[in-house]
Specification:
This protein is α/β, with parallel strands linked by helices and about 200 residues long. It has seven helices and eight strands. Bound molecules: S-adenosylmethionine.
Length: about 200
């Protein structure tokens, strides 16, 4: 039920996000996907992941989502391309002291209460030219209604949508962490306020 609800509500976002991000990653990239979710994107993008020879490490705290993700990895024979860990990113350490070409937050960064801590942590997992890729809905103007309602959506939908991401606050946070934006792409969407954006940041 939880997985069905997640699929119904998040489908459109997920496909937009992974399409933009997977197309952005060069051939043979090594990616840490923080909050990989139920792996639904594998249904659409398994040929792309295989043809680009991507290596994805997925981390998530939700056992039910990961169980589904595991099933899809098996179904599409992606065992050589995807490894998943049931762990909060706050406690995760890359196996074998691995470094990644990209750290990906696809609709997950807004869920973290302590975003500065998460950024500090994941910066250490990047290769020297590594980049952090964020896909998220962003708002230009502060709205008390949005701030009040968004965190409460989880009680109605069982899905945690976290807090609203405001453009100026987000860019200030990146700046404070010495991350500069190398790409900022708006992805057209069908409904709702706010913009879907893929933002790529690298260390100064
Ligand atoms: C909105 S979903 C996005 C899933 C997928 N990346 C997508 O774009 O469809 C956010 C995911 O982040 C996971 N998550 C939340 N807090 C986390 C944490 N502390 N560490 C790892 N994953 C977390 C949730 O369980 C959920 O699967």
């Amino acid at each position: 039920m939880r997985n069905l609800l997640y699929n119904y509500i998040v489908n459109d976002f997920t496909d937009h996000s992974y399409k933009s991000c997977l197309e952005y990653f060069p051939f043979d990239s090594n990616i840490l996907d923080i909050g990989i979710g139920n792996g639904k994107m594998l249904k659409t993008f398994h040929p792309l992941i295989r043809s680009k020879q991507l290596s994805i490490t997925g981390v998530d705290i939700n056992k039910v989502y990961l169980k589904n993700c595991k099933r899809l990895i098996k179904k599409y024979h992606l065992q050589d391309h995807l490894t998943i860990y049931h762990e909060p990113i706050e406690y995760f350490s890359p196996p074998n002291n691995e470094y990644y070409d990209f750290v990906l937050f696809s609709m997950s960064f807004m869920l973290f209460n302590n975003q500065p801590l998460i950024l500090d942590k994941v910066k250490n997992y990047l290769n020297p030219n590594g980049e952090i890729v964020f896909f998220q809905t962003m708002f230009k103007n502060k709205s008390w209604l949005l701030d009040f309602t968004k965190p409460k959506l989880k009680y109605i939908t069982t899905i945690d949508f976290g807090k609203a991401t405001y453009e100026n606050e987000f860019f200030t946070l990146l700046e404070k962490h010495k991350l500069s934006v190398s790409q900022d792409k708006v992805i057209p969407k069908k409904f709702g306020k706010g913009e879907h954006r893929m933002i790529v940041a690298k260390q100064n």
